[in-house]
Write a structure and sequence with these properties.
Blueprint: H1 2-14, H2 18-28, H3 34-41, H4 47-86, E1 102-103, H5 105-119, E2 123-124, E3 130-132, H6 133-136, H7 147-151, E4 168-170, H8 176-185, E5 189-198, E6 209-219, H9 224-239, E7 246-253, E8 256-267, E9 274-275, E10 280-290, H10 292-297, E11 306-313, H11 314-322, H12 335-341, E12 343-344
Parallel strand pairs: 2-5
Antiparallel strand pairs: 1-12, 3-4, 5-6, 6-11, 7-8, 8-9, 8-10, 10-11
Helix pairs in contact: 1-4, 2-4, 3-4, 5-11
The structure holds phenylalanine.
Length: about 350
């Protein structure tokens, strides 16, 4: 029994992994293990022999079990220590600098425009980019064979043969949101509608997708004078200059009457744009008094209400304000460009602390 005891204990202490330890447990104190088989021999002994061998064997069994349990715990500890050695972390190291993302100029300018018009009491309205032909054209007084449809280089949504639902287009301007606002909230209205618009066109200053912001004010006593004041306030705030001269040039849009395109006085001296001085004029938007037919399409009583509307290219005014030469780069997702022209996410444009920094 002493030989068996020292052999088993020696084997246990020599084990280095849990699987071998389990094998050893089975071959010693398992059902058919060496110690268990010895216990069976008790039956063949005389009562006197058994009185000595019984307790000794039980003690041996307890001792082996205890050694197995202790070894098992020691092995688990060793595994854990091994892991801790490779997974340690020096919490006293200084933090690693991360490259922060930047706000895209289009988002920045949209936020700036929104802040300026919010200050003048305008809310923000939105509409779908896949728009019904009716909202994009008919309701805006552009009937089916009107030349303006061709001029806009419209993307038409594909319709399967036999599908007779009314046609849809990728909206060519934000003006359909005028109609949606009128139908949705009724008069009076004071909103701007920023968003993506689409036209099949591509060069240094045109991309198939670009951004516009629409403005719409409807009430019982709105005139062109209100339009002029609102636009002057906007241009001064946006270009961050004290004074600026606007020029209203007679123009034509089917959805406004009268219509005007608006230019701002500027200089391009040394290739750099300066707003408010010089002898050049820069066109920045189209505008006019909402056509009575458009009010009617929007469910508004044209005998009682009138209003002004304007539409402006967000990308265009972003290029002008921040001196960005090529529109196409706006949509290339080139990180070097974004880091150069992007804005800090923490600088939220507002009129109190300044629009841009
Ligand atoms: N929708 C016109 C365009 O895209 C702009 C515009 C809007 C003109 C509102 C007048 C009034 O060119």
């Amino acid at each position: 029994m002493d030989t068996l005891r020292s052999k088993v204990l020696e084997q246990i202490s020599a084990v280095t992994d849990e699987a071998t330890l389990e094998d050893l447990r089975v071959s010693t104190v398992g059902k058919k293990g060496e110690v268990s088989l010895k216990m069976r021999e008790l039956g063949r002994m005389t009562p006197e022999e058994r009185q000595v061998a019984g307790p000794a064997l039980n003690a041996l069994k307890d001792e082996v079990n205890a050694a197995l349990t202790a070894k098992k715990a020691a092995l688990a500890d060793a595994v854990l220590n091994e892991r801790l050695k490779t997974e340690w972390l020096d919490v006293t190291l200084p933090g690693r600098g991360r490259v922060a993302g930047t706000i895209h100029p289009v988002s920045q300018v949209t936020d700036e425009v929104t802040a300026i018009f919010a200050d003048m009491g305008f809310g923000v309205a939105e509409g779908p980019q896949i728009e019904s032909d009716w909202h994009n054209f008919d309701a805006l007084n552009i009937p089916s064979h009107h030349p303006a449809r061709g001029e806009m280089d419209t993307f038409y949504m594909h319709r399967a043969e036999g599908d007779n639902r009314p046609p849809h287009v990728l909206r060519t301007h934000t003006s359909p949101v005028q109609i949606r606002s009128m139908l949705g909230q009724g008069a009076p209205i004071r909103v701007i509608c920023p968003g993506r618009v689409y036209r099949a066109d591509y060069d240094q200053t045109h991309t198939p997708m670009f951004h516009q912001v629409e403005g719409l004010a409807i009430d019982t006593d709105i005139s062109m004078a209100n339009l002029k004041w609102v636009l002057e306030e906007f241009v001064k705030a946006f270009f961050e200059v004290d004074d600026v001269e606007l020029r209203f040039r007679a123009s034509h849009f089917p959805f406004t009457e009268p219509s005007a395109e608006v230019d701002i006085r500027c200089s391009w001296e040394g290739g750099q744009l300066k707003v408010g001085e010089g002898d050049d004029w820069l066109e920045i938007l189209g505008s006019g008094m909402v056509h009575p037919k458009v009010l009617e399409a929007g469910g508004i009583d044209a005998a009682k209400y009138q209003g002004f509307a304007f539409g402006m290219g967000i990308d265009r005014i972003a290029m002008l304000k921040y001196g960005i030469p090529d529109l196409r780069a706006f949509f290339d997702s080139d990180l070097r460009w974004l880091r150069n022209y992007g804005f800090s996410a923490l600088d939220q444009p507002n009129l109190a602390s300044g629009l841009s920094r």
